[in-house]
Structure formats: C-alpha cells, structure tokens
Design a protein that fits this description.
12% of the residues lie in helices and 44% in strands. By secondary structure, the protein is mainly beta. It has one domain: LURP1-related (Porin), CATH 2.40.160. It has a twelve-stranded antiparallel barrel with strand order 1-2-3-4-5-6-7-8-9-10-11-12. A hairpin with a 5-residue loop joins strand 10 and strand 11. The longest helix has 17 residues. The model has no long low-confidence stretch (mean pLDDT 82). InterPro entries: LOR (IPR007612), LOR_sf (IPR038595), Tubby-like_C (IPR025659). Belongs to the LOR family. This is Tubby C-terminal-like domain-containing protein. It holds the Pfam family LOR.
C-alpha cells in the first residue's frame, strides 16, 4: 500500500519518532527516525511561506516531496507534490465535533486509487489512520503532551506506529498535515 515502494515497512512494522522544533527561524525543521534512532526522513519548513511549505527528503538529502496548504478552503486541506511539482496526494480536513478527521487520497504505485482516514481525539494527542478498502488500522499516532524538558528544548515529540507493508512516506505526510492543522488552531 502506498506511493513510495522504497519506504514500505518491514514485516514486523515500524515505529517512527518525530521531534519537531516548535520555534525555529528556519521554520519547522526536524528529522524523523526509527525508535532505535536510525534516520529515515528529513523535513525542512519555510517560516515565511503562506502555504506552510514543508519539503521532505531522504537521509541523503534527496527531495522526495513537498507538502503545501491549499489556501481559501473552509476546512484545512493540504496537498503533496513530487519534485516536479505534480500533485500526488491530498489530505483534506473534515468537520467533526470533539475530534479531528482527515482523509488522504492518492494513487498507489499499482495505479489504484486509495483513501486513508485519520481520526484524532479532541487534543490531537492520539490519532488512528485506517485504510478505507480493508477497514484496517495502518498507523497510530501518539503525541506526548508538552513536558518541561521538551518545552525548554523547543520540541514536540510524536511516536507513529506503522503496520507491516505500509508506505512510511505516506504516513509521515499525513502526520505532518495533522500537525499543521493542529498548529493552525
């Protein structure tokens, strides 16, 4: 399942740790690592971009995709572009009382249209991502509430547990969109 075959989770699944810098002159820039500390992605934000532009790169610095916000939408909507600026995925917020909801729509490498649903609790401390076709959970996001050490260090930590054979890059894009939406509120 996914768009980036090179980033499929192994048979045992994978847990990623996202430590986002809350305050940064260069925007939201952070690395995404596995639970054991192995780097997987780098994210570079632009503090002065109206679209909240975020570039996601592999560990060697190769540009994989860019996440941008669609302006003038009732609900927060983000889109993902490949390096040639072709739209490859959309993550649209949906109205929900007492929780946050989003749907990610993309075409898999096999040419199949896929939808992933993300539903979080009221404070977005936990969210589940479910595959529409199978109804199965493909990832669970847990955000630690700010503790004094993280507050002083200017970081926010997320743990993302991803099921086997799921595209890590797609899940990471959805996590970034969830965080951008949370920061807007």
């Amino acid at each position: 399942m996914g768009m980036f075959k090179a980033y499929q989770t192994p048979p045992q699944g994978e847990t990623l740790v996202l430590k986002e810098k809350i305050v940064s002159l260069s925007g939201d820039s952070f690395d995404i690592k596995t639970l054991d500390g192995r780097p997987v992605f780098k994210v570079q934000g632009n503090a002065f971009s109206l679209s909240g532009r975020k570039e996601v790169m592999d560990v060697a610095g190769n540009h994989l995709f860019t996440i941008r916000k669609r302006l003038l939408r009732l609900h927060s909507t983000f889109y993902v572009e490949d390096p040639s600026e072709r739209e490859i995925m959309e993550v649209a917020g949906k109205f929900s009382f007492g929780s946050s909801k989003s749907v990610a729509t993309f075409t898999s490498e096999g040419g199949q249209r896929e939808n992933l649903f993300m539903k979080g609790n009221f404070f977005d401390t936990r969210a589940a991502i479910t595959d529409e076709a199978s109804g199965q959970a493909v990832a669970v996001i847990n955000r630690q509430l700010l503790n004094p050490r993280e507050l002083l260090g200017g970081q926010q930590t997320y743990h993302v547990t991803v099921a086997p054979n799921v595209d890590l890059a797609v899940i990471v894009a959805m996590c970034i969109c969830l965080d951008e939406r949370r920061n807007e509120n």
